[in-house]
Amino acid sequence: ADFSDHSRGVGFFTFVAATGVVAAQLIVISNDFLSAKILWYLGAGLWLIFMYGIFCALTVKRDKPDLAEGINGGWLVAVVGTQSLCVVGCLAPPELGVGKEGSLTIMLALWLCGGMLYIWLISLIFYRYTFFKFRPSDLMPPYWINMGAMAISTLAGSMLIQRATDSPLLLSILPFLKGFTLWYWATATWWIPLMVLLAIWRHGIMRFPLSYNQGYWGLVFPLGMYTACTFQLGRTIDSALISAIPRGFIYVSVLIWSVTFLGLLRRLVSILVKSYRGIEGGV
User: Residue 282 to residues 128, 268, 269, 273: CA-CA distances in angstroms?
Assistant: First the structure.
């Protein structure tokens, strides 16, 4: 039932994205390539099930919501999951029986598929933004994934550029890789001022209450990913201008993470207090 639900179905791709994040950190922090490869296979298997199972279920579903109710930024988690496989696959090419060059070709295909999926989905999301009634309650924090999906696509592109010397195919299309990766990064950057302005409209002008909910972690991830991808891109193409951005943006990311985490702690304390009072009242 969840697979064929327009609101919940795409949420399954967080399994793929989270698996990819953990796998990448195992490599970066502890050089644990074996565990990372195992997680890549797990993520790839889940990706195949979710990508074709969910979108097939949504396609053949008899009763469907209209576009305004059925689409939101959370759909772009499908892109995030796809690109996370590319990132890990570039850090530790899996043994797929096609050699390192063949594995990198598969990572390239995933990267391009993720980009095409973004174009399809963001077209629907932007159409929903501009041609349907938009209420403050509609601007959920996961809409920041509009930017985050492009940020992780930038990170994956930077990884492919770094591995270009290991693949004649990647080396032959290196200008394309750099151009497309810069396009991803520019698109991610373009979203930030718009999302900030919409947040000001939501909370400052429309007075929508600002309170914690778990959806705000959908804001934290894109900001952190933008910092990471900009750092890697600046280093990869040797751009002093781009490299300067994450030195300041990291503080923004940490600040938003801290505020969200404090909100979570406050919510947990509130729940515990209410539970204790309920037990005390019952006694």
Answer: 49, 21, 20, 14
